[in-house]
User: What shape does this take?
Amino acid sequence: MSFWQEKISIGTLQVPRFMAAPLDGITDSPLRQLIRDFSPTELLMTEMRHVSCVSNEKDQRSLKYRPVEHPLSFQFSANREQFLTEAVEKVIERGFLMINLNSGCPAPVVTRSGSGSALMADLPRLEMLIKLFVKAINGRVPFTLKIRAGYKQKNALEVAKLAEANGVDCLMIHPRTQPEGFTSRLDYALTAEVKKALKIPVVFSGNINKFETAQKVHELTGSDGFMIGRALWGAPWKMREITDAAVGKQFAISNAQALEYALKHFDLNLLEFGPRGFIPFKKQLPQYIRGVAKASEWRGVLLRTQTAEEMREHLVQLVEENREASCTVL
Ligand SMILES: Cc1cc2nc3c(=O)[nH]c(=O)nc-3n(C[C@H](O)[C@H](O)[C@H](O)COP(=O)(O)O)c2cc1C
Assistant: This one.
């Protein structure tokens, strides 16, 4: 068995090396269900939710998922002790197989309260939270931490050691600082230092959209696992394309199939979110249709739709036209 086929151990859980990254507003339950059509065993992660939200929300919306999404990890954000234990209890009761603490989100709306990547600039607070999570979880599911290179200053090495010493089972790293957002150069050397210093597995997150990139990341950093993030946006087959390439197989999807998936995604959104579900679907749409003829015109038409019915009609027309186009080619 090659390195790429081996599983990694995160606490008591064994998962494939490739896994899906959490993307707030994108990797929601409908996208995760569609990813399962292509990647049945890879770890998926919920979008980040604050402990107080999980503990207090009346409709328990953030805890909703479908069994097919397993193995599924829940991701928390937190900045204080209040509500943490209750929130952990709810997540474990609901059957999530892993808990992750977000210490990497760069958004000012999150960091302003001391959550997300701001935790990397406040190590006493981060340590206090890790200890509280470990105590509340009490070994029932693995506990993991997702970090950046640092907040304003790079201190991932120090944070990684603190995490391991306090019982974190796996470290996920997106090696950019908070001001660097999601676009600047990734710090492979820093990730390599982190990997060398830890016994727990290290999972790399950043710009992996093909197998060759994962190979390069592995060579440069020694990372054990590889997260696929934006590449899955409007492309639920992307992780499969990468895992197939890792075993020398080629996975291809036609424009017609991609559009059928767009329609399937749209229908799942209505099922999960009701008639207004076509609105969040608009975020996924441009990625699905980028390969079709007159993509920018179609994008304009679809993004301007005001009702689910209107959008479905257009999508069906797009699927039909492209099915005919594929037939003509054949
Ligand atoms: C729109 C968007 C939303 C994100 N939401 C989350 C989140 O909720 N939790 C998290 O840990 N990271 C979040 N991230 C970061 C990703 O998980 C990932 O680390 C980052 O996008 C780099 O990986 P990629 O280049 O494969 O996308 C988000 C990124 C984007 C672009």
